[in-house]
Amino acid sequence: MLEIKNLHVQIEEEGREILRGIDLTVGAGEVHAIMGPNGSGKSTLSYILAGRDGYEVTEGSVTYKGEDLLEKEPDERAAEGVFLAFQYPIEIPGVATMTFLKAALNAQRKQQGLDEMSTPDFMRKVREVADRLDVTQEMLRRPLNVGFSGGEKKRNEILQMALLEPSLCVMDETDSGLDIDALRVVADGVNLLRSPDRAIVVITHYQRLLNYIVPDQVHVLSNGRVVRSGGKELALELEEKGYAEFAGEAA
Amino acid sequence: MNERVDLRNPAERALAAQFADLVAELAADSPERAARTAAFQRFADAGLPHRRVEDWKYTDLRSLWRDVAPAAAVAPEAPDLSALDVFPAIERTRIVIVNGRFRADLSSPDLPAGVTVEAASGDMPTHLRDDPLTALNAAFQDGGVRIAIAADTAFDRPLEIAHAAVVDDPALISPLVVVEVGARSSVEILESHVGTDTAYQANGVVTLDVGEGAHVRWRRLQSESVSAIHLASFVAHLARDATLDHLAVNRGGALWRWQGWVTVAGEGARADFSGATMLAGNEHGDIKLTLTHAKPHGSSREAFKTVLADKAEGAFQGLIEVARDAQKTDARMMAQALLLSDEAQFASKPELEIFADDVQCGHGSTTGQLDETQLFYLMARGIPRDEASQLLIEAFLDEILDPLEDSAVAVVLRDAIGDWLATRRNGASS
């Protein structure tokens, strides 16, 4: 599904290198966790996958479903099934959440060569997913993410993910700012999306989320490199020992 | 009579020559001739305004209005106005003005109870003595209309003042509309400006008197030909406890200016002005509003939003004057611009002149570009850049229409915005 090879990335304006040779392969049906201290390059990796401006890939490649992902625009990537759940979902005053959801769903369907979804079908689908994630109708009427609490924003991200049914879900610190109840709701939402033809990459600082979304593999990112990979027990080890020992390995 | 005119440039000379032809047809001793001559003299004293005149800092009319077109002929007997109706789906009473002249034959046959329509003359309030456009209008207007709404009148449908320019060649159009709203009346007025695809030149004046405790909701849609010049002056006077809610959508005209003088002349009156403006190509649009609080306990709100694409130029000059008497005034003014291109320009000059000591006044102004973070978020959900930009531009402008909710008029105004955006997208991709 996703194959990252020797990926080097720097910030365009500063020329500072953030990722220094990442190798990562995620197969369909797998859940991978990427853990690491602040500043290790976790969020940069998520932005590179989604196609955000401001970064320059100086070396390496990212292949998604056998094609070069890096040459595609963010909207093309989304239509082909790449979804980034943002660490800080963006507030967009003046754009109603429902309008946005419909525009996104239909834009993707259009790029996939499908007809637009009818309004009743769309409403039914949104309602079904929203109920599952404790997203109220009142929230859906508000402008996108405006006035949403941290937890509401994260639930809204998972709602979009469930609605758009991506093949590759990248979740950037989805657990940050969530209390335990919200964390459970979000994790249940993600677990429902686990399927043999979908890959999930969970980026997190803490092990806590991984109690609820159990990964197949855990990778430790430090200083822009994957310094260690292992099974789910690696997360527990990190929880105990912290990231200190990896700072040395990466240097 | 002293008819000294200091001719400076071809446009002014053309206006003077046209004016000479016009007065030549009037009896030498007629009061009309005297009034028009006095008005033209007021114009000629200063001539066309230029950028060294503070009020015209951002619109150098003297250099922009090079060729003055001949005065428009009376429009044909029965012009086909169906393509020039911007509110077709709205049940309304229409007052139709073609080429600056009121046309009873094209207007709604039945007026609502309490409304009278008659010919108007061009006497301007004395405080506008220095304004060249109202003076020019007073000199040239012909077939102006006075709409009087009696006290205690309420409409069940809006009254539209529909301006249409029906010309094959460039022509000068000088409409005059006088509206008087009686005490305690509550009315909705639509003002529309459209025309054939010609470089016509309109210099219109609207005066509005809102009586005690009366409420006026005024919706203006300027959708002129892309090559037209549109100059508009709006002079309003609000009596005690009156309210005026004036909302404009501006989306057409090569060169245009809307200038307003609004006096909150009675205690407790309120004036709201809001506008959504779209400028593209080489268009130049200028809004200037002088809002004067003359009496205590008045309030006013101004919110103007402008979207500029290509090489368009926009300007906003807002002045809030609070007289010494006007204690407890609450006045706010905001101008925001969204630049869609590096070559587009927007100038904003908000000013306060406050002579009372117990008031709340504020102003703000922002100019920016589309937020790249918001664009990325929308694109990351599969929405292509063009469509994402359109969503954000619509969201920016739609805040102005928010108070209208989903009314029939709001639908038309939103369509005007959507249509402008669609035209731009199609144009950009061709």
Short summary:
The complex is a heterodimer of chains A (251) and B (430). Chain A is of the alpha/beta class and 251 residues long.
Features:
heterodimer, A: 251 residues, alpha/beta, Rossmann fold, six-stranded mixed β-sheet, four-stranded antiparallel β-sheet, B: 430 residues, 2 domains, 7 helices, 20 strands, 21% helix
Question: Could you describe the 3D structure shown?
Answer:
The complex is a heterodimer of chains A (251) and B (430). Chain A is of the alpha/beta class. Chain A has a single domain, classed as Rossmann fold (3-Layer(aba) Sandwich), CATH 3.40.50.300. Chain A has 9 helices and 12 strands. Chain A has helices at residues 42-50, 74-79, 97-111, 119-132, 137-141, 150-164, 180-193, 233-241, 244-250, and strands at 2-11, 17-26, 31-35, 55-64, 67-68, 82-85, 92-96, 143-144, 168-172, 199-204, 217-222, 225-230. In chain A, the strands form 3 sheets. Chain A has a 6-stranded mixed β-sheet, with helices on both faces. In chain A, strands 2-1-4-5 form a 4-stranded antiparallel β-sheet, covered by helices on one side. In chain A, strand 9, helix 7 (180-193) and strand 10 (199-204) form a beta-alpha-beta unit. The longest helix of chain A is centred in the middle third of the chain and has 15 residues, at 97-111. In chain B, the strands form 2 sheets. A 10-stranded mixed β-sheet of chain B has the order 2-1-5-8-10-12-14-16-18-20, covered by helices on one side. In chain B, strands 3, 4, 6, 7, 9, 11, 13, 15, 17 and 19 form a 10-stranded mixed β-sheet that branches. By secondary structure, chain B is of the alpha/beta class. Chain B folds into 2 domains: 10-266, no CATH class; 370-430, no CATH class. The N and C termini of chain B lie far apart (59 Å). The longest helix of chain B is centred in the last third of the chain and has 22 residues, at 408-429. Chain B has helices at 10-24, 31-46, 61-64, 132-140, 372-379, 385-401, 408-429, and strands at residues 93-98, 101-102, 115-119, 145-149, 159-165, 172-173, 176-181, 186-195, 201-210, 215-222, 229-238, 243-250, 255-264, 270-279, 284-293, 299-308, 313-322, 330-339, 345-354, 360-368.
